[in-house]
Amino acid sequence: MKPSISVLMPIYNAEAYLASAIESVRRQTFEAWELLCLDDGSTDGSQNVVQRFAHSDRRIRRIALEHQGIVAALNHGVQSAQGEFIARLDADDIALPNRFAMQLEFLKRRPDVDLVGGCYQTIDGNGDLGKIQTLPQGYADVAAALRKSNCIAHPAVMIRRLVLDRFAGPYREFFPLAEDYDLWLRMSKRCRLENLPDVVLHYRRDFANPRPARTARQAISTLAVLYAHAQECGEPGSEVSPSTPFDESGLISLGCPLERIHAAVRKALLSEARATAKAGFPAQAKLLIGEAKRYAPRVTQWRDCLDYAWKIAQVKMAA
Predict the structure, then answer these.
(1) Which of 59, 101, 130, 172 has the most CB atoms around its CB within 10 Å?
(2) Which residues contact 260 (CB under 8 A, 6 or more apart)?
(3) How far apart are CA 11 and CA 22, in angstroms?
(4) If phi over 0 gives left and psi between -120 and 50 gives alpha, with beta otherwise, what is residue 22?
């Protein structure tokens, strides 16, 4: 029987929590799904975990890929999906048992909505639950919030497959760590996006092992998405060029001041530090605060400025 829902789960060296993530799909009250385990060239025991589940459940399928990153894996998953609806789940998160049933019922009842997300509760590496994150719900509130920040949790969404087929990619490769936000903004021009008020996901946060460099890259990519989206809205029919490096130099070429870039990174690192401290990891929070200080205005170096200027000279935006 053809599945109604295709679940896309990108996997890269996710052995530690992978079994819990897969088991959460198997425990769904709605059972007409397929789980596409998109193995992005894992070198740990992830393959064995997936194969163990796939051996006993034909709805689970491992797709072996060369290591090209999450965007390539997701796009491959979209093309391989058989379901009318596509759901996302990360390899370290846990979908609550009634998630698929609630989201599917909502989309069938609301044919005007093309994507539905939901609220989530954090879970740490030990399985202890933390803060519940509520999100904007109705179309107008979600659309307004998206103009400022990403208010849709990627691993909590369910999307109509036919809608995704309208967008090239649909994920674009040149927004590392913010590919979802880029897609939501492009979709919001033509589609209705909403969130359920219910908690549908336990979202994994590893406060014991902070990754400040990743936090900084994500902040820069998020800012780049906002600037690129503003440019595309100002030039109907234009697209951002994949050759544009969406790092500091790419942002500056879009008109973003260096001070704003550093402020965005600083804010993201300090926010992560606060959450880490509240979770009971003061030493890790101190490390994040130390990284945030590097982006204070007084530490900007001439060498960086010259490097940015050199990169900007090479940037050529699409006409």
Answers:
(1) 172
(2) 223
(3) 11
(4) alpha
pLDDT, tens digit, for every residue of 61-95? Answer: 999 999 999 999 999 999 999 999 999 999 999 99
Percent of the chain whose predicted confidence (pLDDT) is above 70: 89
Run of H or E residues at 275: helix 258-278
Rounded Cα–Cα distance for residues 221 and 184 (Å): 14
**Each residue's pLDDT tens digit, 117-127:** 999 999 998 99
The sign one gets for the Cα dihedral 155, 228, 221, 74 is: positive
SS3 (DSSP) at 37 = strand
The C-alpha atoms of residue 264 and residue 219 are separated, in whole angstroms, by: 6
The DSSP-derived string for 99-149 is HHHHHHHHHHH-TT--EEEEEEEEE-TTS-EEEEE----SHHHHHHHHTTS
Which tokens go with 283?
């030493």
Structural element, H or E, at residue 185: helix 179-188
pTM reported for the whole predicted model: 0.87
Among residues 216, 239, 237, the alpha carbon closest in space to that of 228 is found at 239
Question: What is the rounded distance in angstroms from the CA atom of residue 245 to the CA atom of residue 317?
Answer: 10
Could you tell me the residue ranges of all domains in the chain? Answer: 5-204, 212-314
Residue type, 285: A
| Cα–Cα dist 113/99, whole Å | 17
Q: Return the structure tokens found at 81.
A: 């999906």
Task: State the distance between the two ends of the chain, measured CA to CA, in whole angstroms.
Answer: 47
Work out the burial of residue 311: count CB atoms within 10 Å of its CB; fewer than 13 is exposed, 13-18 middle, 19 or more buried: middle
Angstrom distance (rounded) from CA 123 to CA 204: 5
- Other beta carbons within 10 angstroms of residue 120's beta carbon come to 22
Question: Do residues 166 and 183 touch, judged by C-beta distance below 8 A?
Answer: no
Q: 123 phi and psi, to 5 degrees? A: -140, 135
| Structural fold of domain 5-204 | Spore Coat Polysaccharide Biosynthesis Protein SpsA; Chain A (3.90.550)
